[in-house]
Amino acid sequence: MSTFDKPHAEQIQAYYCAHHGWIRGWLNKKLGNASDAADLAHDVFVRLLAKPRQFESDQHARAYLSTITRHLCVDFWRRQQLQQAWLDALAELPEQHAPSEEQRALVFEALQQVQDMLARLPNNVCQAFLLAQVQGLGYREIGERLGVSERTVTKYMAQAMYQCLLLEADLL
């Protein structure tokens, strides 16, 4: 009986037994931390549980798991960079203005969600949005910088604002 005939839970168990060790080892080498590697290796299989898949072969399963692993690793590094930037910003505040631990956690979570939203945007859309929001540039100036028309910038901004609305709806 092939792994494709087994119930889903047994398939995941088989993939876990076959691939968890090398995933954890690869992550440990990349992250330099066994605890973070174990957490991310676990997350790989949680994702597989959340979105069941059938694989044509063990090589196909390994390739898919490798892709998930790399994406989780990149997400982990992005979170760490964001967290460090947040901690650096907090260190600049006078102690009497420092937020509580709960406020810090809430702001960091919101920052993560904004960062994730920006990462999902096409590059030009993200650039246009950041130029408008961070640097305060107008649509004409953004178009000149990106080499696109003002009308295209308007479309980019509409895409970005739509994603902001979706993010806001999730936060409520």
Shape: globular
Biggest sheet, open or closed, and with what strands and sense? none
Helix content: over 70%
Q: Structural class of the helix and strand makeup?
A: mainly alpha
Give a nutshell description of this structure:
By secondary structure, the protein is mainly alpha-helical.
Can you describe what's shown?
Mean pLDDT is 87; it is low at 1-5. With 172 residues, the protein is mainly alpha-helical. It has two domains: 1-98; 121-172, Arc Repressor Mutant, subunit A, CATH 1.10.10. It has helices at 8-31, 34-50, 58-92, 101-120, 123-133, 139-146, 150-171. The longest helix has 35 residues, at 58-92.
Tag the structure with descriptive keywords.
globular; mainly alpha; Arc Repressor Mutant, subunit A; 172 residues; disordered N terminus
List the helices and strands and how they pair.
Blueprint lengths: L7 H24 L2 H17 L7 H35 L8 H20 L2 H11 L5 H8 L3 H22 L1
Helix pairs in contact: 1-2, 1-3, 2-3, 3-4, 4-7, 5-6, 5-7, 6-7
